[in-house]
Amino acid sequence: MQNITKKLLLVSLLLSTFLFGGFSSALKKQKFLSPEEAFRVTAVKKGDSIETEIKMADKIHIYEDALHYRITAPKKVELKVNKPEAKELDGDKVYEKDLRITIPVSRIESKVKGDYTLEIEFQGCSDAGICYQPIKKQFHFKGAKAGFFDKISNALKEGNAAKIADLLSNESGLFIVFLFFLFGVFLSLTPCIFPMIPILSSIIVSQQKGEEKPSVAKAFFTSLVYVLAMALTYTVVGVVAGLVGADIQTAMQNPWVLSAFAAMFVALAFSLFGYYEIGLPASWQSKLSRVSDEAGARGGLIGTAVMGLLSALIVGPCVAPPLAGAVLFISHTGDAALGGIALFVMSLGMGLPLLLVGIGAGKFMPKPGGWMTAVSQAFGVMMLALAIFMLSRVLPESVTMMLWALLFIGTALYMGVFESKAGEGVMKLFRLLAMLFLLYGVALFMGALSGADSMFRPFERFTSGTKSAVESPKDKGHLGYSVERLMREVEASDKPVVVDFGKESCTACKELEEITFPDPKVKEQLKKFTFIQIDLSKNTDADKALLKKYELFGTPNIIFFDKNNRYLPEKSLTGFIKPEAFAKHLKSVAD
């Protein structure tokens, strides 16, 4: 019996060794192909067409509905291609073995100009039971050379400073200068230039003496001096920033500097209200008058130039893509001469509305009279608004809202909102405007008392009981970032990352926070990302290191990392971007 038991155990051991060993061996022999082995993708340009081919290994197939052809650069374009008939497999349409698709070059070049990138995306499976992740293959081709106006159009739409810098490095000096003039013209249509208009207008009005209205030549010359001073300032700042990597405009956002110039604007406002006159000593005025008379204008040219210089530094636009691109171009090539000329010409383009103000002041302004007092007082209100605008960069939002409330309420009272006289006619419409100012001022006053911090949503505390969905970087405590801290947060994210660089002194940054980020479409796309906001207001060494690391100049700048923590410089954005465009851009990064 004992021998029989031993024999049974031996037989069992042999059987288990054979069976499980064979099964294990069979498992080892079972091998799944890598994506590179399963799919071999090629795309070759032959004559007037691009011939693409996907070669699949045995027992490999791809799904018809997962197959896409698109252009990804210089812009994203979905291509409609003629796909062959797919076969039926378990209820799905699939392709097997070799898949060849020909794309006419004309179909691509009708949509994009210059060099382009073709992307083929597909998803496939093995009959052995494994499905591969979606695969994207990209191929770069030389395209028809972009025409002059095509280059201009592409550059004007570009929001990435690095791409603008690359464009500059490959173009002629004449093209660069003309391009930057157009950049300046487009910038002149943004809100950044608006604060300069009341400053220049008040200068022209303040120079009127006697009974004669200003000549077109004199008003234009005053405007030209102002614009040239502004242009020279931007040129010097841009060249120095490009050569030494300094953010000079940030240095001008020092609270003491801003407070000093806000006080200056308040002083100018009370002067325009007629409480006193601001002027140089009589001996200085006579000397300056003789000098300026020889130049064809009576007094004020030095002061006009100084105001143009200060306006460029203090009230000028936040860094926009063309300015950042020029600075980046200078820093990379060291070509300060071409970069400086480009910035100067851009500033002249920005100054076109200001020159038109000068021409209009001389041509359409009626003769001096009682109306000038009202105009001076209106400019005085604008000067107070500019003072609040500058102080808003250093004061708490609630205090800033209170100042705006007092300005609107005071303006409404000054306009005689409660006065009424019979037979006034059009003055009733004037008082209607005053009533709107009063109501808005009261709304801001109540909002400030409730703790609201948005001029666009003064009743946010009453309607929601919470702060707005998108808080400012300062509210989120996003000060004190370093390159190391940022990278730690990027690496900790399992999603793509959006990094918004802003600061309190930047108007465009606040526009992003008030207009773009709270937009429902943008918020929906941001769910796919980790969103990081960084406040650079203090301009510390760590802040400067961040800007240098990612080759950024000023704010606002938005950079992106993919889900594998790779920095995507080609996706970076500079300056304000509208909600629709930003949502579309986010979708392109996430996809």
Characterise this structure.
There is one protein chain. It is built from 24 helices and 15 strands. By secondary structure, the protein is an alpha+beta fold. It has helices spanning 2-29, 35-38, 105-109, 148-157, 161-169, 173-187, 196-206, 216-244, 248-251, 255-272, 282-294, 301-315, 321-333, 336-350, 352-364, 371-391, 397-414, 427-450, 460-463, 483-492, 507-516, 520-526, 541-549, 579-590, and strands at residues 39-46, 49-56, 60-63, 68-73, 77-79, 87-89, 92-96, 98-104, 116-122, 124-126, 135-141, 497-502, 530-535, 557-561, 573-574. A four-stranded antiparallel sheet has the order 6-7-3-10, with no helix packed on it. The chain folds into three domains: 35-141, Immunoglobulin-like (Sandwich), CATH 2.60.40; 161-365, no CATH class; 483-590, Glutaredoxin (3-Layer(aba) Sandwich).
Please tell me the total number of domains. 3
Instruction: Tell me the fraction of residues in β-strands, as a range.
Output: 5-15%
Strand order of the largest sheet: 6-7-3-10
Number of helices: 24
Overall pLDDT level: 76
Helix content: 40-55%
Instruction: Tally the beta strands.
Output: 15
Structural class: alpha+beta
Distance between the termini: 73 Å
The radius of gyration over CA amounts to: 33 Å
Low-confidence stretches: 5-11, 13-29, 291-299, 465-477
Q: Mind summarizing the main beta sheet?
A: 4 strands, antiparallel
Instruction: Give the overall silhouette.
Output: elongated
Summarize this entry quickly.
The chain has 24 helices and 15 strands. The protein is of the alpha+beta class and 591 residues long.
